[in-house]
Amino acid sequence: MPSIPDRKNQKLSRFDPMSDEELRAFLQLDASKPEGEASDMEEVLYVMELLSVRRKEKGESRDPYQAFEEFKAHYAPEGSFPEIAPAKPKIHFRWNRVVAIAATLALLLGMIMTVGASKFDFFQIIAKWTKETFYTGKAISGNQMEAEPDITSDFPYAELQSILFEQNVMERIVPTWVPEGFEQQEFTSYELPQCKDYHAYHHRGEEELNFEVKEWFVEVPLQVERSSSLLEVYTLEGIDYYIFENNEELQVVWVSNEFECVISGDISLLEAKQMIDSIKKD
Amino acid sequence: MNLQQNEEIKQLYLEMYSKLFDYAFSFLKNESLAEEAVQNTFQIACQKPEKVCNSPNPQGWLVITLKNVISNTVKSRETSTRILTEYYKLRVREIQESTDPEALDILYHDLTNMEEYQLVKGMAIDGKSYLELAKERNISVEACRKRMQRAREFLQGKIKK
């Protein structure tokens, strides 16, 4: 006899091949049920989720933030959802960047000493200081790693996913969902002797969202410490995702084989988990 | 609502808005009405925060509430349509019984300038949401609802005379 999860999957997966019209017809039928006749809420929510995913893929999602503003203006009880004072300038975030830059320099120096000057020509590394990013790219002729961000794509991290697929990387590490309103601004990648680094940057007004992946050629050096800022360890399909809170930002850190991944930015715990869930979804 | 309920309902809103819209639109086939049904659902959630926040399935609670909102929306519009139809029939009968050659023009003029008729017509015939009707009149949604109630009572009073 199939286990309960199997029966549930079969019950719900029958909706997957249905067209949008058929799914809407199902919802219409449910909405037409007379008062007192119960709905199969599991099926209804699954169909609603399916339609929502398909809308996102087509770029037809309605903006819930705009709708929420309408809600606050015309429908919400007076005094609910008060406006929060504008956040102070994120000096701490720039401070984090300074720390990250210093750490990267220390790493470079360490690699020079570890790998040896004969294998690694420091002067071939080009450092470009910009207002927003610190980018180091090794000048490899005919092997440019930097990708032009496809800002018209509705699929988050599409560039990174594309690069990984081209390298026959089947590891599922890339989120396929970001919270509504975030738009990709930049995608950079560079190669060092011991790892490749990919960095995608989204923003939503003053809010920032970063996703960084390091593909290590050596053993992953990351050691996750269970400090007081650890909010939760979210486990999904055998992988532990460590969720930290740091200066009003959330940071999700995990290791998957040779990949060290970090999501950080102005997202809620729920949004962080939704991003994690989207990694494993088809 | 306390702050935590505030935040929970806001997160539910952002999570469920598009999905609830799809559900409402599948039945109402009208974007404005579907939008309004979803907004009314969350309005109810704000009025009963302990019910939605303490529910074992807040998403399911919202769907059930939306179903009831849709049902009330349909009934309300059917009522408006019925009142409008009866009132229009009454005025047509008056024209037929009238000897005034300009009776039809008078009827058109009356209907065009009668706010109560135009308000109910906006809902029943034009399929407008309360928000759209409210914006046209530069009043709040709540004020529009009250005017609609009074307009229907006014027309019903005319029919019954």
Written description of the protein model:
The complex is a heterodimer of chains A (282) and B (161). Chain A is α+β, with helices and mostly antiparallel strands and 282 residues long. In chain A, 35% of the residues lie in helices and 24% in strands. Chain B has 161 residues and is an all-alpha fold. Chain B has helices at 3-28, 31-47, 49-53, 58-97, 103-113, 115-124, 130-137, 141-160. Chain A binds chain B through residues 24-25, 27-28, 30-33, 35, 39, 41, 44-45, 48-49, 51-52, 55, 61-62, 64-65, 67-68, 70-71, 74-77, 80-81, 179-180, 268, 270, and chain B through 1, 6, 10-11, 13-15, 17-27, 35, 38-40, 42-43, 46-47, 57, 59-60, 63-64, 67-68, 70-71, 131, 134, 140-141.
Helix/sheet category of chain B = mainly alpha
Mean pLDDT of chain B: 88
Biggest interface, CB < 8 A:
A-B, 36 and 39 residues
Give the helices and strands of chain B as they follow along the chain.
Answer: HHHHHHHH
**What is the helix tally of chain B?**
8
What is the H/E order of chain A?
Answer: HHHHHEEHEEEEEEEH
Low-confidence stretches of chain A: 1-5, 89-95, 116-153
Q: How many whole angstroms does the radius of gyration of chain A measure? A: 23 Å
Major beta sheet summary of chain B: none
Please report the distance between the alpha carbons of the first and last residues of chain A: 27 Å
Strand content of chain B: under 5%
